[in-house]
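Hi support team,

I'm filing this because I wasn't sure whether my run with magnesium ion finished correctly. The job status page said complete, but I'd like someone to confirm that the output block is well-formed before I use it downstream. Pasting the exact inputs I used:
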Amino acid sequence: MTSRERRIADFIEAFRVEPGSKIRLSRDFDPAFRGTIHSKKEGRRLLAEGIDLLAEYQTRLYAQHTHGVLVVLQALDAAGKDGTIRHVMTGVNPQGVSVHSFKVPSSKELEHDYLWRYGLQLPGRGEIGIFNRSHYEEVLVVRVHPELLERQRLPRSARGKGIWRHRFHEINEWERTLSRNGIKIVKLFLNLSKEEQRTRFLRRIDLPDHNWKFSAADVREREYWSDYQRAFSKVLSRTSTEWAPWYVIPADRKWYARIAAGAVIANALMEIDPRFPTIDSDARKALLEVKNALEAQAPKGAAADPFEAG
Ligand code: AMP
Ligand code: MG
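And here is everything the job wrote out:
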């Protein structure tokens, strides 16, 4: 591990939800936390470093082609999911990345089991897939608004008292299957304070260029703040696993959230540690034959092989 990698691994420890621990958001995580980073300037440098690292690893992830990375982003409205995606992914090759935003399920989606539509959007090997909202909505918004569960047309036997316990178990098992098969799952919860959400909504109202982001529905959803805090606390307590731990990202400062999210994603790639494939001696021999043929075609005055040193 290089010292840069060590620094990143140490930095993200504070955000990790220990599997099996019982979380109460209001007590355990501070949305305004900024640890030892004191200035935006220092933050910008770190973010740039993280972005470089991501780009470097993404190329190798693609070349190795055995693993994919699924980034799960969950948060309340105005926590900065979109901005985080935009900033963290600036350096990576768009060909290797997909972003999928999950909205209220369509009637076609409701014809299927609740995990179906998420499975359809998973990243393939070599890819980084980002879920802007995810299967966790099925134990968050659906839990806070029971009428959404009604629309899922579940058989009576699947609607009983144990439904959330069952869903947590099913989600954990689904994620375990994926991770055993090479899909590394990175789960980020952007943790925003109620007061910061209020000022961000006001900003969307006050700045004309931001009006488009404002949604009256988001403000109505704010009335369920404490229900969401409870639902998130349960999700974090029950679905942070060794194979797919949650990270709680302090989101009251956008610049800090971006560094932290970038670091967690970079760390996941470091753990995969993808390498450029090397070739065996037969394949190497075949390459050398082609090389000789190409060198023989050099026009007068041109170097036979300009890449060959000496
Ligand atoms: P936005 O991300 O602001 O475009 O809003 C998407 C909306 O879709 C949010 O209000 C989510 O709560 C809602 N949503 C996402 N997934 C689900 C789901 N599985 N069931 C019900 N509503 C959902
Ligand atoms: Mg919204």
